[in-house]
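Good day; I would like, with your permission, to put a structural problem before you. A protein sequence and the structure tokens that stand for its backbone fold form the material at issue. The record follows directly beneath this note:
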Amino acid sequence: MSASRSTPRLRATVALLGVVLALVAVSGRPLARGLAGEALALAGFACIACAALGRIWTSLFIAGRKDTTLVREGPYAALRHPLYALSMLAMLGFGLASGSIVITLALLAILGVLYARAARSEDAFLGGAHGPALERYRREVPAFLPRWSALRMPETLEIRPRVLWKAFLDAGSLLGCYALLRLADALQASGVTPTLLILP
């Protein structure tokens, strides 16, 4: 299987989430305990679930066409980089579910830089393919914060089963990572794993 332009970013994201799981397993996080901890975990799950569902929806519009067509329908009418924005929402969810301000800020900062660079690279690639049309799109549609009033839906949409299956696997991996994070937290809370550091 050949590597795509997104492969290094995906590997970096997976590696960072692996570090987060390890930190959760071996750190005391006072915010993660009690009612506050449960509320943060629930808020985190809500962010991750919204991101997972949003990524499925968004993938239906872009996958299989993103390198040849300037897609401006569905979520791409409201913001230029909805997949990156939804990924950031998922990272916020993982941070909240970790019960650590430090982990949350680190996830958002590191992946914010990574996704901003990816968005610039994607804009440059699309600029070479679409020229003035992309410049008009950039002027009219914000990059990451949606302008919901601009949302417009097509009457029909061609669905590719393979793309839909990949989007479901993508969403499932987010939810699976949340389950692993909760397991790591439970192991830490029950004393199965040692407390090597305290994270606010």
Summary: Helices lie at 7-26, 34-62, 75-78, 82-98, 101-130, 132-140, 161-189.
